[in-house]
Specification:
single chain, 74 residues, alpha+beta, 3-stranded antiparallel beta sheet, 3 strands, globular
Length: 74
């Protein structure tokens, strides 16, 4: 079974304000477990919001990273 193609930047621009870690990982071209590990270590390339049982990725920051406007989360 083939992996779905990553979303285009135009598609990501239409996403809601926050997205799940698996969706963001697909856009970044990495696995969800890898992105979860980066978030836990404080090394995520995108800004996240943390809740007791989950994290969500801020779509606007994901767009900036993918556009090359920002190299790492501040």
């Amino acid at each position: 079974m083939s992996r779905p193609a990553p979303p285009t930047l135009a598609e990501i621009r239409s996403w809601p304000a926050t997205v799940s870690v698996p969706e963001a990982a697909r856009a970044l071209g990495c696995s969800k477990s890898h992105l979860h590990d980066l978030i836990r270590r404080g090394e995520s390339p995108v800004k996240t919001l943390s809740f007791p049982n989950r994290h969500v990725v801020i779509t606007a920051h994901l767009i900036r990273v993918l556009s090359g406007e920002e190299d790492e989360a501040a």
